[in-house]
Amino acid sequence: MTGMPDHDHIYTNEAAQYDLLISREDCRHNIMETFRRLLPNLEHLDVADIGAGTGRLSCLLAPYVQSVVAIDASQAMLDIAADKLKRTGLTNWETCVADNRRLPLPDHSVDVVTAGWTICYSANSKVDRWNVHLETILAQIQRILRPSGTAIIMENFGTGDEQPNPPDFLTSYFHALETEYGFSHAWIRTDYRFTSVDEAERLSRFFFGPDIADKVSAANLQTVPECTVVWWKRV
């Protein structure tokens, strides 16, 4: 892709616009269905959502789990997550600013760690020593999980595509999850349904860049297909 937006800038300075984008994601509700399949007895589980952003997964899980802590490197993103969680009236949540490689939680303190579209920023092949970063993050996840806990990682498996088409720079990371770290995986559709073609084009250009935005505009897409890969492992 060419002319890709600066996601670090977006997460720090345009968090509200980003939150509008993700509010359009997963119009078929496949993410929650996946959680229910992987996590029986949700109501008894303490969850750490790392790289939580504006609370996409934290807000989804909070009504159903015992507790959730949303962790992200961006205070601006967490401010929006906290506002959304406050508006639910729930009190079983907290937020914390931290890097995925230095999680500020005690050993064996949660039953589930979720990581949605976040580890990829440290573990893609464009990043120097990506494999070391991956090892560090997974060691942190292992450290904070209780025995028989579950790690769930979600990543891009093709935005704008109806069938899996993962970015080349993520394939080594995915291969390592499967062959070195013993994760299982499946893919789901997490399509975006926008209020109009104009909104679809504008928000796609904002975050995904011109290639996908031009495709959306040319095909008059109000629903933009997306594939997401779900990796999971019980410790």
Automatic annotation (TrEMBL):
What is one GO biological process annotated to this record?
methylation
Pfam family, any one: Methyltransf_11
According to UniProt, the name of this protein is Methyltransferase domain-containing protein
For the Methyltransferase type domain, which residue ranges apply? 49-153
**Annotated GO MF terms:** S-adenosylmethionine-dependent methyltransferase activity
Which keywords does UniProt give here?
Methyltransferase, Transferase
InterPro entries to which the protein is assigned, alphabetical: Methyltransf_11 (IPR013216), Methyltransf_Superfamily (IPR050508), SAM-dependent_MTases_sf (IPR029063)
Lineage of the source organism?
Answer: Bacteria, Bacillati, Bacillota, Bacilli, Bacillales
